[in-house]
Write a structure and sequence with these properties.
The complex is a heterotrimer. By secondary structure, chain B is of the alpha/beta class. Helices cover 31% and strands 25% of the residues of chain B. Chain C starts with a helix and ends with a helix. The chains are: A mainly alpha, B alpha/beta, C mainly alpha.
């Protein structure tokens, strides 16, 4: 059984009990301002999104024809949209959609990309060649363009949008873990495991994966940020979440039509996207400092 | 022993590292002098401060954590520690040069070696491009790199480690410096290459009268190439003597330990089969030096006085000094 | 060097081929009968016989790989079929859109370089001072800002409130140079912010890394001024990782173009892609996606060659 110690070194054998290791990791995490800020932002957003239904806000679907495009004030802290619906409320409900969609995209991409990368890196040979060539070509398309096209193929709707983003995200995770596997598979403990007759499956999952996983965790956090931006871009264009589902992207799109009259309508969801992405980026960068001491990007 | 006036004299140099955990006294009041054409060996374990000493002489210590806090470096009638940055830069590379340990990484990988060599020449000697190129070729011939006219367009990765170090030597000598600081110049290289390079350096030294500070942890190298030797421990000098004298009669217990742990081939050519003696214990943390003699915790001959006060460096024999309470002048107890 | 450049060009060929296959495959997966896809809803009332005939004419009765080869053959000679919307040849629809996208994209990219690299160097050389902190925080924020926010703020304040620059549209430089510049600035700035943030962070990291290396000590020991050490020795080495990400940056520019062109109503390829997807004008979609990917591949090739120019070690391998 291999473990990764708190300072990122790879060692065979579990060196300390799980409890103390987690405590150490938590201490290091707390000492890193970026990670803490990121986590705080993420918890804040997720909390707001989760509790949106129970907060004392008007329903996001309530049309109030008497208060269209109102500015902030009174019951509408951030004003209303072109149908008189409360912006703040739609913002929070839209958060549910965006966050759920993004985390699902990343989860799906991990589910497909990690095993693919593990196998490709470990088995090598023809399989690896073919996979890499295909990934190279998929990556030749800029991410949003690819997501758009896939969403067009699949059809509009939030589920299809989530799927499209997941497909776009798979190559990044695959390449990342494949790179890790390539450098790990020559380590001595892998050779030792092989020499005692461990099955390939055991080696891959018990020795290689735990040591390769760190940069993937970092990338997963950053990937959620990417998914949020891409999802809102899809909704902005009209694919992705469809009305009446509130979504940040479609709110922005409507907002831009009334930018001069009611700037908050476009800027509030845009700012929400910003804060969400910032939170996950900070978290990802903070995790990177913690888990991947070789990557010096600070 | 050379009675000529020293070309470089260091008096009580102190360089400290200011770290979060405390202050590390990397160089703790070290003095030395070296005369023209002479080679002074500086020997000691990793972490004893010998590299810091060399960097301090050229004022190249990495300045956020480290700082030169005291002493004088007398060269050419001036104290180098008081010079302006511009004046110091003139001295670097022209009057005092340095050769570093890692030939694999000490040269810029994306610039040809010819340009890197010519850069020093152009900077200090104000020659035209053409003249600098000619001198570069000349220097490469001097360090015996074959085919030098073509080699000047090579990149470092196209040369072996030994050749790269020759280029470093050429760079160091290109402006005819009075002193060369050689910091473990051959540690990263094969033993056979080591010998070649040191012979080359000795030859060039003799030719140009350059003084050399040869820093190493390898006693064998010292024996072959130094005129005088100083031994450093925990940032201080603990012994100094002409090389033959040091090997014949080491006075300081640390030096004795170092020499004792060199594997020997005795008269018959057979290798001794006994276990190599080692100096017990570890080098003390330089942030947490014990009061008294820094070596006392590991010394078999330490007494109470050793742990109370640090012994001063005193002349114990002619030309031979040591910092130890247990060594009396003239007689070794 | 030439050999290396040639090798790189040859290496892109399989990538181009695979990309075209992927684009083609994606198009074939679009919902609906390809014939309606290609001809459009307007002809839904065409008779069965005529449909069969059209199918033959368009080669849709051939096996898919053959269709692909036909498509490639026609594409190479510039024939991408006809737009369903406008009945014009697709190439005629595509061509005038290239200039705005390229102009804004290149401007954004250059802006990002010109701003990002000096800031990156400045923060790297003054580590742990307020300058460093400000630069790093700025970069983190800039990287997280979506185009909607930057574009929205710029349009609201610069265009609508202060009326300094137009909020939308694009004018060709051949028609009116001044107006062209004015319509390019805001979209280019919007794109450039995110790019500059990434470039700043990478430059900073790269510089800090290079300044620790042994050959920097050697350069200082030779008596060079700190400025020369940075510009002659550190710079080239530090730029290597930055050049690597420039290729990715160019792909990002095209992604971003989709959004910025929509926000600023610029008639470029990005907006063409969006419009044609929404109006199901699939021949145009196919051509636009192919064109964009070819531009990305070409940009990456240029970056690879630039890297070879900078790093002699790559040329050997």
């Amino acid at each position: 059984m291999t473990t990764t110690t708190a300072d990122g070194l790879r060692r065979p054998g579990g060196s300390r009990r799980i409890g103390t290791r987690v405590k150490l990791a938590a201490q290091r995490f707390a000492a890193n301002p970026m990670a803490v800020c990121g986590l705080a932002l993420v918890v804040f957003e997720v909390g707001l999104a989760l509790f949106a239904p129970v907060l004392p806000l008007p329903s996001p679907d309530d049309i109030d024809t008497l208060a269209m495009l109102a500015g902030p004030g009174g019951t509408h802290w951030l004003g209303t949209d072109d149908l008189g619906r409360d912006t703040l409320s739609r913002l929070l409900w839209g958060a549910r959609v965006s966050l759920a969609s993004s985390t699902c995209s990343v989860a799906l991409a991990l589910l497909v990309g990690v095993p693919l990368g593990l196998l490709s890196g470990y088995l090598g040979g023809m399989f690896d060649e073919v996979v890499m060539r295909i990934l190279d070509s998929v990556m030749a398309l800029p991410p949003l363009v690819l997501a758009l096209t896939i969403a067009a193929v699949l059809g509009p709707g939030i589920v299809n949008g989530t799927l499209a983003i997941a497909i776009v995200a798979v190559p990044t995770f695959t390449r990342l873990i494949r790179g890790q596997v390539l450098s790990i598979k020559h380590d001595d403990y892998v050779a030792a495991a092989r020499s005692i007759g461990a099955t390939r499956r055991a080696i891959i999952f018990r020795h290689v994966l735990p040591n390769a996983i760190n940069p993937v965790i970092v990338q997963a956090a950053l990937g959620v940020g990417f998914a949020i931006i891409t999802e809102s871009s899809l909704s902005f264009i009209g694919l992705g979440a469809q009305p009446p589902t509130p979504s940040w992207g479609s709110m922005v799109q409507v907002g831009f039509q009334y930018l001069e009259l009611a700037p908050l309508l476009a800027l509030a969801p845009a700012a929400a996207i910003f804060v969400a992405v910032l939170g996950f980026n900070l978290l990802g960068e903070g995790l990177r400092d913690l888990l991947d001491p070789n990557a010096r990007l600070r | 022993m050379n009675d000529a006036a020293p070309v470089l004299e260091v008096v009580d140099l102190a360089t400290h590292l200011f770290l979060r955990g405390g202050v590390v006294r990397a160089v703790d009041g070290v003095s030395l002098s070296v005369a023209s054409g002479e080679t002074l060996g500086i020997v000691g374990e990793s972490g004893c401060g010998k590299s810091m000493l060399a960097l301090s002489i050229l004022r190249l210590v990495p300045s956020p954590p480290a700082r030169i806090v005291g002493g004088e470096v007398r060269f050419g009638g001036r104290n180098l520690l008081e010079l302006s940055d511009a004046a110091m830069r003139e001295i670097r590379g022209r009057d005092i040069s340095m050769i570093f340990q890692e030939p694999m990484t000490s040269l810029n990988p994306v610039v040809t070696i010819g340009r890197q060599l010519a850069e020093t020449i152009e900077l200090h000697q104000k020659l035209s491009r053409r003249a600098a190129v000619d001198r570069t070729v000349e220097m490469l011939k001097l360090v015996r790199i074959p085919d030098s006219e073509r080699r000047i367009d090579d990149y470092p990765h196209q040369m072996s480690g030994g050749m790269r170090q020759r280029v470093m030597i050429a760079m160091a000598l290109s402006c005819n410096p009075k002193v060369i600081l050689a910091d473990e110049p051959t540690t990263a290289l094969d033993v056979t290459i080591q010998a070649q390079l040191l012979d080359l350096m000795a030859e060039l030294q003799a030719k140009f009268g350059t003084a050399m500070l040869l820093i190493t942890h390898d006693m064998g190298l010292i024996a072959e190439n130094a005129d005088r030797v100083m031994v450093m421990y925990a940032g201080r000098k603990v012994e100094e003597a002409p090389v033959a004298e040091l090997f014949a009669q080491p006075l300081h217990p640390y030096t004795q330990g170092l020499l004792g742990s060199v594997p020997r081939v005795d008269e018959g050519g057979a290798v001794e089969r006994r276990r190599l003696p080692e100096i017990p214990g570890n080098v003390p943390s330089l942030a947490n030096l014990p009061s008294g003699c820094a070596f006392a915790p590991r010394c078999a001959r330490a007494v109470a006085q050793c742990r109370e006060r640090a012994p001063p460096l005193e002349l114990k024999r002619q030309g031979h000094s040591a910092a130890c309470w247990r060594v009396e002048s003239g007689v070794n107890r | 060097m030439l050999r290396y450049a040639l090798a790189r060009v040859l290496a892109t060929i399989p990538v181009v081929v695979l990309t075209s296959i992927i684009v083609f495959a994606l198009m074939r997966m679009l919902p609906g009968d390809p014939i309606t896809v290609l001809i459009g809803q307007a002809h839904v009332d065409v008779g069965e016989q005529q449909l069969v005939q059209m199918r033959k004419d368009l080669g849709l009765d051939q096996p898919v790989p053959i269709q692909y080869l036909h498509w490639i053959k026609r594409a190479v000679s510039g024939d991408f079929g006809r737009s369903v919307q406008s009945r014009q040849p697709v190439w005629d629809v595509l061509r005038p859109r290239i200039l705005p996208t390229v102009q804004i994209g290149l401007t954004a990219w250059l802006l990002a370089l010109v701003v990002g690299i000096p800031i990156g160097i400045a923060t790297a050389t003054s580590q742990n001072t307020w300058k460093d902190w400000a630069g790093s925080v700025g970069a983190l924020i800039g990287a997280a800002m979506p185009y909607f926010l930057v574009g929205g703020l710029l349009i609201y304040f610069v265009a609508l409130k202060w009326r300094l620059l137009p909020a939308s549209g694009f004018v060709s430089p051949f028609v009116d140079f001044g107006a062209s510049v004015r319509t390019t600035i805001l979209p280019a700035l919007t794109l450039a912010l995110g790019l500059a943030a990434v470039i700043t962070r990478q430059t900073r990291a790269s510089f800090i890394d290079v300044m620790q290396r042994a050959f920097i000590k050697t350069a200082r020991a030779k008596g060079l001024t700190e400025q020369r050490v940075v510009s002659r020795h550190a710079f080239k080495n530090a730029m290597l990782p930055v050049v690597t990400i420039l290729g990715i940056q160019l792909a990002t520019v095209f992604s971003g173009a989709v959004i910025t062109e929509t926000i600023f109503a610029v008639p470029g390829i990005g907006r063409l892609l969006v419009d044609s997807i929404l109006s199901r004008d699939y021949p145009v979609v196919q051509a636009a996606v192919l064109f964009i990917s070819l531009m990305v591949v070409a940009a990456n090739l240029a970056v690879d060659i630039l890297y070879g120019l900078l790093d002699p070690r790559i040329r050997e391998a």
